[in-house]
Write a structure and sequence with these properties.
Elements: H1 3-14, H2 17-51, H3 61-67, H4 71-93, H5 96-99, H6 105-118, H7 124-147, H8 155-179, H9 185-211, H10 217-243, H11 246-256
Helix pairs in contact: 2-4, 2-6, 2-10, 2-11, 6-11, 8-9, 8-10, 9-10, 9-11
Length: 259
């Protein structure tokens, strides 16, 4: 591809109003995600202190009920709700492969916020890791914006996605039941990132079908699967907060999810 071809592609990108609106929405969602992670992490820590129980092996039902009474956790949940709204708005008007990776901005914000709150400056190694992650994501987004195209997801492809999601939930659920007392934040973070990747994909499929006026039974199954993956992923995220810092949780979500 010549320089002239690249230039024409860039002009086409900047003339695409959907991309120009979808990218800022995705960035706004990343900001809300970062703030929500901080507040929810604070709420989980407070509940652990008050209950005297470590939630690293999985938050108990009593701890989950106490979270609903923590103002910091509720504020964080509101922030994450706004992040989801921004994300859904972004993927409804722009290619998923372009806007979804932009959540990596939340990693930078969360690391800086966590460093400020804890009073510990980020280490050189963590800054290099963040730079590598974010730089790679933005390079990917740049080329995705130039060449990404979307096609209709067929029923067969949706069946494949749903079947893989079912296997993933069984594997993650089985691993949690058997090894939950030995699991730490990394398991929950990676698991939540994988599940939220399915959530984004299914949300895009459902939105596209609704926009096309095709709300059939398989679309309803996708909605149910989307909700199930969201619930399990949310539980994993809250448990990860009890055994790891918020920047680790956001790192897993914003890197594993787009992959």
């Amino acid at each position: 591809m010549t320089a002239a071809d690249v230039s024409e592609q860039l002009v086409g990108v900047f003339e695409n109003p959907k991309l120009l609106l979808g990218i800022p929405l995705a960035l706004a969602g990343a900001v809300f995600m970062s703030l929500g992670a901080q507040y929810q992490h604070r709420g989980v820590e407070k509940v652990e202190r008050l209950s005297g129980q470590d939630g690293a092996a999985g938050l108990s039902g009593q701890q989950l009920k106490r979270l609903l009474a923590r103002p910091s956790w509720l504020i964080g949940t509101l922030m994450l709700g706004l992040a989801i709204i921004c994300q859904l708005a972004a993927i409804s008007i722009a290619p998923l492969i372009v806007v979804q990776p932009l959540g990596a901005i939340a990693l930078v914000m969360t690391t800086l916020l966590n460093a400020r709150i804890s009073g510990h400056a980020p280490t050189r190694q963590s800054l290099i890791a963040i730079g590598a992650c974010v730089g790679g994501v933005f390079l990917f987004v740049f080329f995705a914006a130039l060449f990404a195209t979307e096609k209709t997801i067929t029923n067969t492809e949706l069946f494949t996605i749903l079947a893989i999601l079912l296997v993933v939930i069984i594997v993650l659920g089985g691993g949690w039941l058997i090894l939950r007392h030995r699991m730490r934040a990394l398991f929950y973070v990676v698991g939540a990132g994988i599940l939220y990747g399915f959530v984004a994909t299914l949300a895009k499929a459902v939105i596209s079908r609704v926009q096309a006026g095709e709300f059939d039974w398989i679309t309803l199954v996708c909605v149910i699967a989307l909700v199930a993956a969201s619930v399990v992923g949310a539980y994993f995220v809250q448990t990860a907060y009890s055994s790891g810092p918020p920047d680790l949780v956001i790192a897993g979500l914003t890197v594993v999810d787009p992959l």
